[in-house]
Design a protein that fits this description.
This protein folds into 2 domains: 1-35, no CATH class; 49-215, Jelly Rolls (Sandwich), CATH 2.60.120. The chain has no helices and 16 strands. It has strands at 3-8, 14-19, 27-30, 49-60, 62-65, 73-85, 92-98, 101-102, 110-117, 124-126, 135-136, 149-156, 161-171, 177-187, 194-199, 204-215. A hairpin with a 4-residue loop joins strand 12 and strand 13 (161-171).
Length: 216
């Protein structure tokens, strides 16, 4: 049946396009009052930052998110929200994966980090720490309700040099509020198509992780 398309800016200004063909019913498109470019591919791909995965932890030993694709994305943004661990004073770690297998198992990363606590005596720089088998999203933190982790990380996983960056805030079981920022580098030729998220010991009790890709 014939119908019309109404383009509305949400403020009462609109244009109606009449269509002689079959629409089934009238349609309304609301356009926000801002400037943007919308890609013509899929509804989840707006031409820039694309949400690839979201997962809510519930006493998980680990979680594999095999959603990375170097053919379409140049890097990834990974955000950890309200993470609480099942075991006190442990850390969140991230391993790289390829075709269902971990690729950091025997690989040494090179890390430089900066740490600050509300009691200044706990502040330090870690310039020579070289973890084997994982990247870090946090140092050790407590697992009480108010000791949850908030962490924003970026992964650049193409080519020989894999780069991991993180910035986070959390509270230890000593009641001290902490913040850390750092980078890790891995020299490895493996193609990366996923990440494994886990605690250094025990389970991840609760919280959410989201992964976005930076579109090429």
């Amino acid at each position: 049946m014939p119908g019309s398309i109404k383009i509305d800016d949400g403020s009462g200004n609109y244009t109606i396009l009449t269509n002689a063909g079959s629409l089934g019913s009238d349609k309304t498109i609301t356009i926000p009052n801002e400037t943007a470019t919308i890609a013509t591919t899929t509804a989840t791909n707006l031409g820039g930052l694309v949400k690839l995965a979201e997962y809510t932890f519930s006493n998980d030993a680990d979680k594999d998110l095999d959603v990375l694709d170097e053919n379409n994305y140049i890097g990834y943004l990974i955000h950890f929200k309200d993470i609480i661990l099942g075991t006190d004073e442990k850390a969140i770690r991230v391993g790289l994966r390829n075709d269902g297998s971990d690729v950091l198992t025997s690989s040494t990363t090179h890390r430089g980090s900066w740490h600050m606590a509300t009691n200044s005596s706990a502040s330090f720089q870690g310039l020579a720490a070289n973890p084997t088998g994982y990247f870090e999203a946090s140092f050790n933190f407590g697992n009480a309700t108010n000791e949850m982790l908030q962490s924003t990380c970026q992964l650049w996983a193409h080519g020989t040099q894999k780069l991991w960056e993180w910035a986070n805030t959390y509270e230890g079981s000593d009641g001290v509020q902490d913040a850390s920022k750092g980078i890790q580098v891995l020299r490895n030729n493996a193609t990366v198509d996923g990440i494994r998220i886990y605690a250094s010991t025990g389970n991840i009790a609760s919280g959410t992780v989201c992964v976005w890709g930076y579109k090429k």
